[in-house]
Amino acid sequence: MQNCLFCKIIKGEIPSTKVYEDEFVYAFLDIEPQAPFHAVIVPKIHIKSADEINTENSMYIAKIFEAVAKIAKQENLENGYRVVNNCGADGGQTVGHIHFHLLARRNLQWPPG
């Protein structure tokens, strides 16, 4: 997608701090971290949101969760972490490219507060 922020990051048109990359997934540090460790994990194909996951592209979502496990090991997140996906405006999605937040290195109690 031509004007997609995350597609531009994947292509290297916008700089990012890479945490992990393979042929299916790209992960980078969030520019407004909500935890001491906060990475954004995106598929290398454009999927707008969780509403667009289907049999043709669901393999990319599985690859994201495989990457989560690899990143957790790589970053020594043995105390735990949270994976978050926001879908649509009311769900808090601000970029129209499906992505998952990997947050760690602080207590992430629920509900917050």
Explain this structure:
With 113 residues, the chain is an alpha+beta fold. It has one domain (5-104): HIT family, subunit A. Helices cover 21% and strands 22% of the residues. The chain has two helices and five strands. It has helices spanning 5-11, 58-74; strands at residues 18-21, 25-29, 37-43, 81-84, 100-104. A five-stranded antiparallel β-sheet has the order 1-2-3-5-4, covered by helices on one side. It is globular. The model has no long low-confidence stretch (mean pLDDT 95).
**Biggest sheet, spatial arrangement of strands:** 1-2-3-5-4
How large, in whole angstroms, is the Cα Rg?
14 Å
Helices and strands, in order, run as: HEEEHEE
CATH third-tier fold name: HIT family, subunit A
Features:
single chain; alpha+beta; 113 residues; five-stranded antiparallel beta sheet; HIT family, subunit A
Task: Give a short synopsis of this structure.
With 113 residues, the chain is of the alpha+beta class. The protein has helices spanning 5-11, 58-74; strands spanning 18-21, 25-29, 37-43, 81-84, 100-104.
Could you outline the blueprint of secondary structure elements for this entry?
Elements: H1 5-11, E1 18-21, E2 25-29, E3 37-43, H2 58-74, E4 81-84, E5 100-104
Antiparallel strand pairs: 1-2, 2-3, 3-5, 4-5
